[in-house]
Amino acid sequence: MFWIVAAAITALVTSAILAPIRRAKGGLGSGSEPAAAYDLRVYRDQLTEVERDLERGVIQPEDAVRLRTEIGRKVLEADRRLSQAAPATGRGGTVWAAAVLGIMLAGGIALYLREGVPGAPDMPLAERFAAADAAYRARPAQAEAEAAATPRTAPDLSEADPDYLAMVDQLRAAVARNPDDLQGQQLLATHELRLGNLAAARDAQARLVALQGDQADAGQLMQLASLMVEAAGGLVTPEAEALLARALALDPSQPQARYLQGVMLIQNGRPDRAFPVWRRLLEEGPENAPWIPSIRAAIIELAWLAGDDEYEPPAPVAALPGPDAEALALAEDMTPEERQEMVEGMVGRLQDRLATEGGAPEEWAQLIGSLRLLGRDEQADAILDEARQRFAEAPEALAVIEAPGPGAGEGVDAGSGEGTAP
């Protein structure tokens, strides 16, 4: 069936390519002639008609001379165009075009026979799932994956602060003397990672998790899993997966663990299961989260592989505006009245922008929360009604706007300026 379909498509493409060439050659024996030949016969008939009119006395001799001159120029132009078109009436151009097309088709078939698998049967969905499960179970262990990973180059510490390097050396010595110190292991893992010493950071984090035992939290487990994945060259090994499972059991919303879970599913041929995980992460945001760029780069292709070829990712939501360092510094030296005036100005600018340009649901929630903090409940209710009209066909956006408490936006307080994102 594949070869029948391929042959039919090839025939259609070949016909489509050669059709305009055949038309340009005058139909290859269809009996059509160039337009210049027809024009030349018309002009010659016109010259004959001028001579007849002159003999009958219909036109004057000077008019006959003028007409002969004008028609003569047209005859020369038509003859020139006919001479240019004459070589194209042969079959040589078409033969060359067909030859080039044949070479391209033959090359495509040869490439497929060499790189493709012509005799491979179609793989049913159940067999694909079985192959994915086999790949999942055949993953290398952590030690094996690390041994096979590309060796990392030693970090360049030539420009590092000598005092900082000396402090890290002292920390290493202190942890070596007291390896059961939880705080020491945590600090060592943090600073080793900052210096680019991945293996040392992984070892310190593993020691920390081991000391914590069942008391290790989701963040500590996720951090160890992430370091193990990086040490394994990006592969989520069974040991790293077990840590991710523990982290998600403690905190099902842990975003980094969910992201790595999606990576594992993709690596093992299950885009259908990875897509809903990454889709939810993308919808939850925030946009400046470190995992969002890689999800955005792959989510459309992942959706297609999962069978959802109509998926459209949500548009990026810009971070909500907040006070800059200068505004915060000024607010510290202000009186309560001056600070209140500054806050009123920030709220007013946000309100004007939303009224003229619109904004994200989070910004509407921020404005409503800010107005309530300022005691302007009636105005907040009016803006809430307007937001409900704007987002009437977006239930998810309305849920953000109408969520109570922090979900509705912390608003703008008198000490921090224009507000913080929820």
TrEMBL record:
<dbReference type="Pfam" id="PF13432">
    <property type="entry name" value="TPR_16"/>
</dbReference>
<dbReference type="GO" id="GO:0017004">
    <property type="term" value="P:cytochrome complex assembly"/>
</dbReference>
<feature type="region of interest" description="Disordered">
    <location>
        <begin position="402"/>
        <end position="422"/>
    </location>
</feature>
<keyword id="KW-0201">Cytochrome c-type biogenesis</keyword>
<protein>
    <submittedName>
        <fullName>C-type cytochrome biogenesis protein CcmI</fullName>
    </submittedName>
</protein>
<feature type="compositionally biased region" description="Gly residues">
    <location>
        <begin position="406"/>
        <end position="422"/>
    </location>
</feature>
<dbReference type="InterPro" id="IPR011990">
    <property type="entry name" value="TPR-like_helical_dom_sf"/>
</dbReference>
<dbReference type="InterPro" id="IPR017560">
    <property type="entry name" value="Cyt_c_biogenesis_CcmI"/>
</dbReference>
